[in-house]
Amino acid sequence: MVMLFLSIIFAYLLGAISSSYIAGKVASGVDIRDHGSGNAGATNTLRVLGPKLALLVLVADIVKGILAIAFAHLATNGSQWAMALSGLAAIIGHNWPIYFNFRGGKGVATTIGVLATLSFPPALYAGLVAIALLLLTRYVSLAALTFVTLTPIFQIAMHTPAPYIWVSVIILLMTFWRHRTNITRLRKGVEHRIFSR
After folding, report:
1. Rg of the chain in Å (alpha carbons)
2. pLDDT tens digits for 99-114?
């Protein structure tokens, strides 16, 4: 139980390291949250700082999710609940980082790392659909929402362990909540498209 608790705390603190904030400060001396969409994530980094830094941020945020689960696996001898809850904690840390006044991102990249690590085949299939949708529409938000919606569906179809499914559903709800303004813009037809100013 102690290692479960420590794994969750570690995951949150790791997730709370905002790579986009650090990239903005180091590269240009700016707070990424005060520019573009105001979101501390890879998409806004692309908009404000360019593709190279955006790629670094994307990879760093994905890796946070992977490392959080890897630590939980080692610390708890592979407890499924520990890994699932630690993945969730990493996303919560990214979205509400204690180091940065709880102003973070929307957790999409970290979610990719978490879901792909917990259940790779379902996340892969959901990801392929999301990527196709992104290429067709250039709506990152729509692709992200599609990814988190399809992943638990594929998990259920592929008999994924229950802890992973439950956490994926929580991630789905959290992602929709974080994207509520994007959903409003999508419904109005005014959502931002990637690679457009």
Report:
1. 16
2. 999 999 999 999 999 9
| CB half-sphere exposure, 147, CA atoms < 13 A | 29
Contact 1, 71 (CB under 8 A): no
Expressed as residue numbers, the domain containing 122 is 2-188
**Residue at token pair 């998990």:** 155
CA distance 20 to 99: 13
Q: Does some domain include residue 196?
A: no
Which long-range contacts link 170-177 to residues 24+ away (Cβ below 8 Å)?
Answer: 170/88, 171/88, 171/91, 171/107, 171/111, 171/114, 171/115, 172/148, 174/91, 174/92, 174/95, 174/107, 175/106, 175/107, 175/108, 175/111, 175/144, 175/145, 175/148, 176/145, 176/148
Q: Can you state the percent helix, strand and coil of the chain, rounding each to 5?
A: 75, 0, 25
Residue 108 lies in a domain: yes
Q: What is the per-residue pLDDT across 62-120, written as a single tens digit (0 to 9) for each?
A: 999 999 999 999 999 999 999 999 999 999 999 999 999 999 999 999 999 999 999 99
Residue 104 gets which letter from DSSP?
-
Residues counted in the chain:
197
User: Cβ(38)–Cβ(71) under 8 Å?
Assistant: no
Does residue 117 fall inside a structural domain?
A: yes
Provide the domain count of the chain: 1
